[in-house]
Amino acid sequence: MPIRLGTRGSALALAQARHVASLLGDEAEIVEITTTGDRQRALVDKEKWVKELELALLAGEIDLAVHSAKDVPGELPDGLTLLGAPARADARDALCGAPSLEALPEGALVGTSSLRRAAQVLAAREDVSVVEIRGNVDTRLRKLADGECHALLLAAAGLERLGRADAADALLDFVPAPGQGVITLEGRADDEAAAAAARAITDAAAWTALQCERTVVTELGATCHTPVGAHAVLDGDALTVDVFVGLPDGGAWVRDAVRGSVSDPQELGRVAAARVLAAGGGDLLSIAEGMTAPNGRSTSPEQRGSAVGPDGGGV
Ligand SMILES: NCc1[nH]cc(CCC(=O)O)c1CC(=O)O
After folding, report:
1. For ligand 1, is residue 162 a contact (CB within 6 Å)?
2. Which domains, and CATH codes, for the chain?
3. Pairing of β 151-155 and β 228-235
4. What is the pTM of this model?
5. What's the complex ipTM?
6. What counts of helices (H) and strands (E) characterise the chain?
7. Which in 59, 191, 275, 281 has the greatest CB count within 10 A?
8. Rounded to the nearest whole angstrom, what is the distance from the C-alpha of residue 94 to the centroid of ligand 1?
9. What are 25-40's pLDDT values in tens digits?
10. 71 noted as active-site residue
């Protein structure tokens, strides 16, 4: 029996599924999951696409769901588990339309729908305005070309996988989203054959980093309403995780990097989250949770503060 890989039908999702299929070789088959009316009604917006694949897994229609790891929520449904991840692509955020953040004109419109990217671009350049640019990667690049914004923030990994790496004019030192650049495989907890297939194409560094970054998110109690970044990097026996928590308007943030042993990525995630919470990250998370404006301009200027954090670090 071939391994059935479930994927969404977007260009990025299909590119990721084809990549996984090529790693698995002959025994993989791609099953494109299209949204059925009945199922869709039961689902909430943000997690819709991940949930759709999870329902197909639970129904036995597919054996492995192929996801962008950063879109996978912290909590998985009973009976499902993450089984592995192939080697990570570039985890960084890319700037399209300008050679650097410094080069953006005064008051430039920067397109993103990510609170995390908004928080970090506004922390670096408080004069710019964040505009919500939605749609798939090609749609967003077209909106940039059409002049709807001066520049666009996108994941370098998504651009690469779509053959559009040329559109990245700079790679930023923002803290990436947890799991950014990682493709992860989800399966049924009792499916040994699927687990073995996922294990065979798993890259230890990507998988270790993902465990650490996902632990940071759950320990922070972060949601999709809170700007949070976490990026773990292996260096021999050491694992370093860089964590960012901020307000969507860039007015205050905490960034801290913690180094630990590669042997316990979850423990490092717990330590890093505890440090960030102790440095004021917990307050930022509660304030951010209460802010609703997607462009991050819902707070008064008085709430703008200076950076805090154990390292007093900057973005
Ligand atoms: N939220 C959409 C999404 N999910 C994964 C990627 C890119 C691929 C990756 O990060 O692995 C993107 C596009 C983007 O953020 O620019």
Report:
1. no
2. 3-86+181-202 (3.40.190.10), 93-171 (3.40.190.10), 213-303 (3.30.160.40)
3. unpaired
4. 0.90
5. 0.95
6. 10, 13
7. 281
8. 11
9. 988 999 999 865 545 5
10. yes
